[in-house]
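Q: Please design a sequence for this.
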């Protein structure tokens, strides 16, 4: 996908972008989904498969398909939490049944009636940022480095260059998988929701992501995120990687 895909919805404007790592010949290990619900809500998701080709690509695709199927089984508008949790659990079982070492990260945000809630497995990230740059909610990366940042024991600069930044401690496709459920976040009129694989967050600091994601026309915001991440990937300390971003703007 060379250009972001733009979708209009009652909840706002949704933009999605996916691109394989520069110079990589194998398929993109990332997958993304934008799922409408019966009650006019949205379920947004990004997954980053691990384990190398082709198992990473397969794992992330299974996660998206199970999530879509579960949300599509909704028979009346209402609580999406059981459907999302069931979709993730199904994905975990199906990936484990492959018995080929496949696994994937998964970050999900549901939006209904201007209320957002996140679900997290692994180190793909999601956040809600206000018009003035206030981070109203951010998922916690399930990794030693992510937990160290969350506790204040490690700063972003150190984390981006840490030897263990690639290690993930929680994955869909693991017998010990656990799902972290975030709080309900009431969205203001100009709040922005962003989900992305570590191709974004391993190359840009959080304040850079927030600054680029919240100002200007939506398509310009997405292009700025992609361009800045790509430029950083080609720098001395950058991390070339697949890149997937889903963004919901007013």
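A: Design:
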């Amino acid at each position: 996908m060379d250009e972001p895909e733009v979708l209009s919805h009652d909840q706002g404007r949704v933009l999605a972008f996916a691109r394989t790592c520069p110079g990589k010949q194998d398929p993109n290990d990332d997958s993304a989904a934008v799922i409408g619900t019966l009650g006019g809500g949205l379920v947004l998701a990004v997954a980053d498969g691990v384990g190398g080709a082709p198992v990473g690509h397969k794992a992330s695709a299974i996660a998206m398909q199970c999530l879509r199927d579960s949300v599509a089984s909704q028979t009346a508008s209402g609580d999406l939490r059981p459907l999302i949790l069931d979709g993730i659990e199904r994905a975990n079982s199906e990936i484990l049944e492959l018995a080929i070492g496949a696994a994937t990260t998964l970050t999900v945000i549901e939006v209904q009636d201007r209320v957002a809630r996140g679900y997290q497995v692994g180190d793909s990230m999601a956040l809600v940022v206000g018009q003035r740059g206030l981070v109203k909610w951010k998922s916690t990366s399930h990794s030693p480095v992510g937990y160290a940042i969350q506790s204040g024991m490690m700063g972003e600069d150190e984390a981006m260059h840490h030897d263990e930044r690639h290690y993930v401690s929680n994955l869909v496709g693991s017998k010990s998988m656990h799902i972290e459920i975030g709080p309900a976040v009431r969205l203001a009129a100009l709040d922005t929701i962003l989900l992305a694989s570590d191709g974004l967050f391993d190359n840009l600091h959080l304040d850079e992501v927030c600054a680029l994601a919240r100002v200007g026309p939506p398509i310009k915001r997405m292009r700025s995120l992609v361009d800045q991440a790509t430029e950083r990937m080609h720098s001395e300390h950058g991390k070339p990687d697949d890149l997937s971003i889903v963004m919901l703007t007013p």
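Q: Thanks. Anything notable?
A: The mean pLDDT is 90. Helices lie at 55-72, 81-98, 144-151, 156-160, 198-201, 206-214, 218-233.
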